[in-house]
Amino acid sequence: MHPSRSAFALHARLLNSAGIELWPAPLLRARASADARILARAHTVLRRKRDGRYLAAVLDQGLWPLVPRLAREAGIGPALDLLDQQHAGLWRGPPPAPGELPLERLHERLQALGLDQAEYAGRSGLALVAEPQWLALAGFDRWRRPLWLRPGAARAWRAMQRAAALDGVALDAISGYRSHDYQLGIFERKLARGQSVAQILQVNAAPGFSEHHGGDALDIGTPGDRPAEESFEATAAFAWLGEYAGRHGFGLSYPRGNPHGIVYEPWHWRFHAAP
Q1: 106-271 domain in CATH 3.40.630.30?
Q2: 253 neighbors 217 (Cβ within 8 angstroms)
């Protein structure tokens, strides 16, 4: 891991395409000694969304492939277009507000789970959520992983975390932005552990319908409390959020008895807009 990763907190951006993300190399952990040598010299890494595999590193000398047959990688064309824009300086300075990526391959993801898009949307009352074209670094989560959010949500989260700290309350992030592919991976892992799709849908929205896709939602915890558990409701952090989160533009998404069929989630908050 690059020693200066904390210096990126206010400036780093994740550039997003349908299947591949462009990450600032100093924020990534090397998974092998060969990767470590390359990442130490890289400024950008192309990362596959589906499984997090590093596909290529961008060095001062040019593009360095980290997988065989990089040219055949699904989605490599749009990712290289983003890279060209980065090299042309289009991502320097204040960028425009993030647009949204097309909802590609969503039908395939849902079909793989035996779900019909229209039926699930009607039953759950949840809306489709597109991924942003880029996200800002909002800091780091409990495990020191980069926390990506839309720029407005990132600023609001940092301000709310500081305000809580001044009141003697520690808030930490558990999870922020998640791609459609990452959400599908959650289902696949839980299915492999023997859970049914119906059981998983009580806790996780279907791929394409999670608020985490939009970069405005995050799961919040506090040190000493288990992540994403109902016990969070009994903490000083939750009490503080109940009183002050609205002042920072955040609201609780899934209270008890919510109409979406999702269990009570006292940890899940979404940024709407600063009041």
Answers
A1: no
A2: yes
Going from N- to C-terminal start, the domains of the chain cover 5-87, 106-271
Query: What are the backbone angles phi and psi of residue 134, rounded to the nearest 5°?
Result: -155, 160
What's the CA angle centered on 204, arms 144 and 9, to 5 degrees?
25
Instruction: Give the count of beta carbons closer than 10 Å to the beta carbon of residue 237.
Output: 23
How far apart CA 27 and CA 136 sit, in angstroms, is 13
Tell me the C-alpha to C-alpha distance, in Å, between residue 135 and each of 99, 176, 221, 252, 272. 10, 11, 22, 22, 16
For 81, the 3-state DSSP assignment is helix
Q: What angle do CA 138, 38, 17 make, to 5 degrees?
A: 45
- Long-range CB pairs of 61-67 (<8 Å, 24+ gap) are 64/38, 66/35, 66/38
pLDDT in tens, 156-214: 999 999 999 999 999 999 999 999 999 999 999 999 999 999 999 999 999 999 999 99
Residue type, 168: G
* Residue labelled with tokens 């992983």: 145
Q: Can you tell me the distance from the alpha carbon of 259 to that of 145, in angstroms, rounded to the nearest whole number?
A: 32
Helix (H) or strand (E) holding 272: none
Give the end-to-end CA distance of the chain in Å, rounded to a whole number: 38
pLDDT in tens, 1-59: 444 444 444 579 999 999 999 999 999 999 888 889 999 999 999 999 989 999 999 99
Q: What is the pTM of this model?
A: 0.93
